Amino acid sequence: MSWAFLGILVGVILGLSLNFSIPIELTKYSAVIIMGILDAMFGAIRAEATNDQFNGIIFISGLIFNIVLSVIITILGDKLGLDLYLAAAFVF
Length: 92
Description:
Layout (H helix, E strand, L loop, with lengths): L1 H16 L9 H23 L6 H25 L4 H7 L1
Helix pairs in contact: 2-3, 2-4, 3-4
């Protein structure tokens, strides 16, 4: 668990120190990807806190599934002209 916090800390420091901008066309996608990542992270934290059975394989597969599903919903919404990324953000 300490490695996870160290990784989060390093990621935040790198994110704040690097000048990286996301094109306006991709902001919807980055928002739903971040929501999928947060959903998987909070699920892992809950499993650790409640002494449930935490499995790294399930965590990684859930993380990838959340990201892929949210991006597919956002792409479908773009093709239909709807803001379906809001639905994906609401679900997470």
